[in-house]
């Protein structure tokens, strides 16, 4: 059996692309992973400071890099033959960096199949999701909210 996961990430700037937060959710929404880096990267764009940082949960979600990596690896490893869906290539880059211990530990990365979601009908449904859910729209750019939106759109369009 294959378990579908849906990914979203947030990062500080287009130039440095340092990860801020990462979320994964499975197809039925019953399994979720969400984490934020602690400490946060020092330099962030004005967009991130205005729209991403205010949405961060901190508390138990804020993890030092080594704990972030351990928990992320354990989550992915707990899934049956995971296929990780994402709508932006940067999300996959960020996932791989986090799984690789942010450049410190490339051993022990669990296997998974990356799936780039680029179908226009899925992207259109993702936008409709935000239009029809004002609470989600207000929290857009929270990795968990955006991963959930991708999950919803994909499952509705591709796997009805």
Question: What key attributes describe this structure?
Answer:
Nucleotidyltransferase, domain 5; six-stranded mixed sheet; 160 residues; alpha/beta
Q: Quick gist of this model?
A:
By secondary structure, this protein is of the alpha/beta class. The chain is built from six helices and six strands, in the order βββαβαβαβααα.
Overview of the molecule:
By secondary structure, the chain is α/β, with parallel strands linked by helices. The protein has a single domain (4-158), classed as Nucleotidyltransferase, domain 5 (2-Layer Sandwich). 41% of the residues lie in helices and 20% in strands. The chain contains 6 helices and 6 strands; from the N terminus they run βββαβαβαβααα. A 6-stranded mixed β-sheet has the order 4-3-2-1-5-6. Helix 4 packs across helix 6 (143-158). It is globular, with a radius of gyration of 15 Å. It starts with a strand and ends with a helix. The model has no long low-confidence stretch (mean pLDDT 94).
Q: What is the annotated CATH architecture?
A: 2-Layer Sandwich
Mean pLDDT comes to: 94
Task: Specify the biggest β-sheet.
Answer: 6 strands, mixed
Tally the beta strands.
6
Structural class: alpha/beta
- CATH topology tier name: Nucleotidyltransferase, domain 5
Global shape: globular
What is the helix content? Answer: 40-55%
Order of helices and strands: EEEHEHEHEHHH
Total domain count: 1
Highest CATH level, the class: Alpha Beta
- Beta-strand content: 15-25%
The Cα radius of gyration reads 15 Å
Protein name: 3'-5' exoribonuclease
Organism: Dyella agri
């Amino acid at each position: 059996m294959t378990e579908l996961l849906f990914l979203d990430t947030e990062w500080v700037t287009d130039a440095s692309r340092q990860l801020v937060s990462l979320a994964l959710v499975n197809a039925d929404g019953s399994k979720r992973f969400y984490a934020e880096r602690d400490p946060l990267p020092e330099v962030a764009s004005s967009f991130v400071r205005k729209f991403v940082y205010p949405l961060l949960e901190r508390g138990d979600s804020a993890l030092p890099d080594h704990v972030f990596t351990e928990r992320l690896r354990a989550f992915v490893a707990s899934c049956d033959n995971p296929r990780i869906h994402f709508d932006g290539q940067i999300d996959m880059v960020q996932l791989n960096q986090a799984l690789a211990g942010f450049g410190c530990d490339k051993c022990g990365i669990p296997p998974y199949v990356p799936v780039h979601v680029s179908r226009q009908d899925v992207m259109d449904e993702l936008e409709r999701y935000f239009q029809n859910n004002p609470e989600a729209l207000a929290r857009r750019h929270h990795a968990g909210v955006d991963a959930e939106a991708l999950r919803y759109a994909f499952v509705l369009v591709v796997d009805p």
